[in-house]
From TrEMBL:
Domain Phosphatidylinositol transfer protein N-terminal: 1-250
Molecular function terms from GO: phosphatidylcholine binding; phosphatidylcholine transporter activity; phosphatidylinositol binding; phosphatidylinositol transfer activity
SUPFAM superfamilies: Bet v1-like
Pfam families given in the database record: IP_trans (PF02121)
Organism: Diploscapter pachys
Annotated GO CC locations: cell periphery; cytoplasm
Protein's name according to its UniProt entry: Phosphatidylinositol transfer protein N-terminal domain-containing protein
């Protein structure tokens, strides 16, 4: 199993990101759905779980089950090697913000031989907590700066979601300057994300695990650039309004799945 921990600085308050995260996930799901691929919401309900984090008090939040169909978003070599069913990923997510846990599996094809877990904790700090998610001591720790254009592909770039050009009228915040985390004029939180992947297949395991981990800096950078730069769209929304927005976009995704046009990111190697 390959484990990496990503640390992402964000110019937001902790409560703000709770709403911005939900808004961003809903909007990104819509933008990535079409042509038979993308996101299908299966079920969503409130939960309380005593075992979500062993040794910690019970946590409550929202459980969500989604299906992702992602063939065109995977490396070309993987598309050629694996069966169609390999690209249908089931995601189970427990959002007990500021802690979140997401588990992805492939029950139709890989079954118990594929497991992807993303644990997240969001903290008001400087990104220097030693091991906030109790990961293995030898894990790689990767810091991601949402202002770094090198993290995303050139086809991802949009001046409207560039934090270096962004300004929020609602919060009177931005743009982000060079070294903004040290000389900051904004709030600061860190999203700590530990990604663990197991792909048990003789001869392919290391290649697939590295390919998946390689994609996450781009995914995390692109998503959080959008989330921050969409701030004026969600900043004044209540949590109730955000949840209504989620349900509305879930229905739109269902309709978009049926049309012929694929949307969103496809896989590109960085040059």
């Amino acid at each position: 199993m390959l484990v990496k921990e990503y640390r992402i600085a964000l110019p937001l308050e902790l409560e703000e990101y709770n709403r911005g995260l939900l808004y961003g996930v809903a909007e990104a799901s819509k933008n990535e759905t079409g042509g038979g691929e993308g996101v299908e919401l299966v079920e969503q309900y409130d939960f309380t779980d005593e075992t979500l984090v062993p040794g910690q008090p019970p946590m409550s939040g929202t459980f969500t089950h989604k299906i992702y169909r992602i063939k065109s978003k995977c490396p070309w070599m993987i598309q050629k090697l694996l069966h169609e069913d390999a690209f249908e990923i089931h995601e189970e997510s427990w959002n007990a913000y500021p802690y979140c846990k997401t588990i992805c599996t492939n029950p139709k094809y890989m079954k118990d031989n594929f497991y992807l877990c993303i644990e997240s904790i969001h903290l008001e700090d400087d990104g220097d907590v030693e091991n906030p998610l109790n990961g293995p001591p030898k894990r790689d720790i990767v810091y991601l700066d949402i202002c770094d254009d090198a993290l995303i592909h050139k086809n991802d770039y949009d001046k409207n979601t560039d934090p270096k050009l962004w300004h929020s009228e609602a919060a009177n915040r931005g743009p982000l300057e060079r070294d903004w985390t040290e000389n900051r004029k904004t709030p600061l939180i860190y999203a700590y994300k530990m990604v663990s992947i197991k792909f048990k297949w003789k001869g392919l395991q290391k290649m697939i695990e590295k390919a998946v981990q390689k994609a996450y800096p781009r995914l995390f950078a692109k998503f959080n650039r959008e989330c921050v730069c969409w701030m004026d769209q969600w900043h004044n929304m209540s949590m109730e309004s955000i949840l209504e927005f989620e349900q509305k976009l879930a229905k739109e995704c269902e309709e978009q799945m049926k049309d012929n046009r694929k949307r969103g990111m496809t896989y590109h190697e960085h040059t």
